[in-house]
Amino acid sequence: MYPAGARKSLPSGSSQARSLSCSHLPRSSPRSTSLSARHYKPRREPSSFSWLQARYRLRERNHQQAERLAAMANLFLKQAKQYVATRPSYPPELFDFIASKTPRRDLAWDVGTGNGQAAASLAKLYKAVVGTDTSAQQLAFAAPLPNVRYVHTAPDLPLDGIHAAVAGPGTADLITVAQAFHWLDLPRFYAQARSVLRPEQGVLAAWCYTEPRVSAAVDAVFWRLYRGSQPYWAPNRRMVDDEYRGADFPFDPVDGEAHTGPFEFSTERAMDLDGYLTYITSWSAYQTAKEKGVELLDEATVQEFAAAWGGDGKEVKAVTYPIFLRIGKVRAE
């Protein structure tokens, strides 16, 4: 049985899910048997080394996460206006389904809120919403609402900073991540989510939309363009192409569901050819390619789109975006 508004649900444990390989720890050196080494305690050295190594790796991971999120903010800053003008909206059925899985509706936290699109929909269902983003420029496009508070956060905001600026421990009923899940340092984010969500009740919902569908002719041109754009996407984009199926998601299924998804929804946006091409120029990959001297929408490609669209390009068509949702609740300890 599928949730209302969803066409199908696919368990994350399917054969498409990615497997994780394990690294192996180095073996300890054999213990010396010489008399001169009688007071030497080699067993403590590996422990000390591992501790120092762990500290270094933690600092390095936090630094890399800060750089990744800063890069994300810079990429979307460059196309913020196009992003707002062409980004598809999310259907009410998506939010109704998510909200039906939270026992309480006091507080929702929208991570990577951008222009506040998801936060505005959550505001209709929750008493209070906090939308956070690392880009102040994206937040500038968010519409003010009486029960929504927008917070510009540093990419490496520590847990105590989240408790102070966003939500206290165990107080959030819901955390959402719309089209930004693949940018996050997931182990670090999950620790933050478990701290903020209500024990055994709080729900985490993350979703993405994938490539638009218009018609067989337009889609054929689109897929040629999309394949050519692959070198210019950040590696994280593969999670979207995978529809979040292979993402580690250490949460329990929400009430009434047998797994954590992905569950499929869809949304439509009416566009003429100009709006459709403007959507493509809002891609971070388009901006990256342009910086490298590559025009993805060259004259020949635009002409192909025009021929596939038909007429003078002014005809408004329904552009459909599939949406894939992962959803789960905090595991009982």
Kindly state the percentage of residues in helix.
25-40%
CATH architecture of the domain at 68-214 and 237-268 and 320-329: 3-Layer(aba) Sandwich
Secondary-structure element pattern, one letter each: EHHHEHEHEHEHEHHEHHHE
Q: Got a strand count?
A: 8
CATH topology category name of the domain at 68-214 and 237-268 and 320-329? Rossmann fold
GO molecular function: S-adenosylmethionine-dependent methyltransferase activity
Biased composition (Low complexity): 23-36
Domain Methyltransferase type: 110-200
Biased composition (Polar residues): 11-22
Properties at a glance:
elongated; 8 strands; 333 residues; Rossmann fold; 12 helices; 8-stranded mixed sheet; alpha/beta
Describe the structure.
The chain is of the alpha/beta class and 333 residues long. The protein has a domain at 68-214 and 237-268 and 320-329: Rossmann fold (3-Layer(aba) Sandwich), CATH 3.40.50.150. The protein contains twelve helices and eight strands. The chain has an eight-stranded mixed beta sheet. It is elongated, with a radius of gyration of 23 Å.
